[in-house]
Amino acid sequence: MPRNPDKTNISSTSTFPQCDYRLIDRHIQSNDLSDLLASKASQFGGCRTKKFEQQSFNIKTGMGSWFKDPALTPDHQVWGGACHALSITWITEHAHGRSIWPWLQCSCGDILSGPASYILALQASSKGVSEPYFNYFTYYGSSKSHWQKMIFNFYGMTPYPLIGQYDYEASITFQNNPIKQNLDHLLSEIFNTTDHYILLRFYNVQQHGHCISMWSGKDIVLFDPEIGEFWFPSKDGFTEWFYEYWKKACLTHFVLPTFYISKWTCSYK
């Protein structure tokens, strides 16, 4: 989010109505899935550190009330969610020693319209909508991976490990193997290095996707915009919980998904 006064805001909110008086939701009542996974986290030595749900399927409350309304989105698009922008923002805040939550929500739990406008602008730029910055990447194409690098670099984040100037995102596609075998393969890619942030995008065969973010160090933190933020003291407990998370939160919609994995470190604090 734009907290560095020495840099120009890379995602202008001018596209969106500036209704600062409008508190857009009172949705921080955790859903059944989040509660179930919170119970599982406790079982494996972790905990849910934040209740959150972006309400992407709700046209009246939550952030869905904005990005499901064509009048509030550039070019009158109707989006499936804002998970990509939320996940990137979570990483950039966490990496600089800040929490996203005091910025995103007021004390009563409502999401504020100013931050919501920023998230929607960032999501719009990820789609190449109403953002001139994509012109810079005309030669390479305005792919999400190049956009991600531009946004992360703006906030002092660099790819880890830096494989090459543009080749830094690994991809994995699940095969017709037992689900645990597929998940173990995915986790081995995530945990083959340490002390970094992970942005994990995944898509089903119809190209419907979702995005989550993680911290991997001595402890593990996962943020899913649909269910909240979860913490584990080690990867062992997290791994057991992740099996449950995938089966209960993702498996129905992502049977043989393709994952795009990028890792990030902070250049400055």
From TrEMBL:
<dbReference type="InterPro" id="IPR006473">
    <property type="entry name" value="Peptidase_C58_Yopt"/>
</dbReference>
<dbReference type="Pfam" id="PF03543">
    <property type="entry name" value="Peptidase_C58"/>
</dbReference>
<dbReference type="InterPro" id="IPR038765">
    <property type="entry name" value="Papain-like_cys_pep_sf"/>
</dbReference>
<protein>
    <recommendedName>
        <fullName>Peptidase C58 YopT-type domain-containing protein</fullName>
    </recommendedName>
</protein>
<dbReference type="GO" id="GO:0006508">
    <property type="term" value="P:proteolysis"/>
</dbReference>
<keyword id="KW-0645">Protease</keyword>
<keyword id="KW-0788">Thiol protease</keyword>
<feature type="domain" description="Peptidase C58 YopT-type">
    <location>
        <begin position="180"/>
        <end position="249"/>
    </location>
</feature>
<dbReference type="GO" id="GO:0004197">
    <property type="term" value="F:cysteine-type endopeptidase activity"/>
</dbReference>
<keyword id="KW-0378">Hydrolase</keyword>
